[in-house]
Every structure is written in C-alpha cells, then in structure tokens.
Amino acid sequence: MVPLTSHTDYQLYCQLDRDSRVDVRGLGLPPEGYDLGGVSGGPMLQPVYRDRVWGWRLVGALSEAVSAGSFERVTAVRAHFILPDGRISR
Q: I want to staple 56 with a disulfide (CB 3.0 to 4.6 A). Which of 8, 42, 45, 82 is the partner?
C-alpha cells in the first residue's frame, strides 16, 4: 500500500516508495523504471477497518502512471467525478 502523497480537489497522487514494497506473491518486484503504462482506468482503493473487519473503499480511478528512473507516481481522479456511465467529469 502506498500512502497519498499529495492531492487537489480533482486528483490524488501517490509517489511509489521502493523501500516499502513487499513481494506478496513471491514473483519479484518490477525493476526500477518499469513501464507502468496500462494501469489507467484501474481502481485506487483505500483500506477501511470497521467493526473489526477490513474492507476497501473506492477513492479514485487511475488516470496516469509515470516512471522515470527512480521516480514513480500514480495519479487518480477522485471517485466522485466518475459518472454513472463510467466517464470522468471535469
């Protein structure tokens, strides 16, 4: 899980931190500078702990992933801008 690093009224940003990544599937982590292209449209989820049960809350839809050397960041449009037909409003 990556903490939110900055935000605007419209977007959420998470800068990835290689030192905190965990290889939970045992397949190895992507190399530095790995192309994150293709993640657009995926969910940005927030873990939620309520009544001793963990769940997930949709907070945004991924709109951009940047990977340039050791700098890696994902950007999402806040969930309340997602229209019922799936399009993103401005």
A: 45
- Quick count: other Cβ atoms within 10 Å of Cβ 54? 8
Render pLDDT for 61-86 as a digit per residue (tens, 0 to 9).
Answer: 999 998 887 888 999 999 999 999 98
Q: Which of these, 2, 89, 84, 80, lies nearest to 39 by C-alpha position?
A: 2
Residues in CB range of 52: below 8 A, 6 or more apart:
none
How big is the CA angle at 77 (ends 7 and 54), to the nearest 5 degrees?
80
Q: Fill in the amino acid letter for 57.
A: R
Radius of gyration of the chain (CA): 14
| SS3 category, 10 | coil
What mean pLDDT is reported for the chain? 90
CA distance 74 to 83: 21
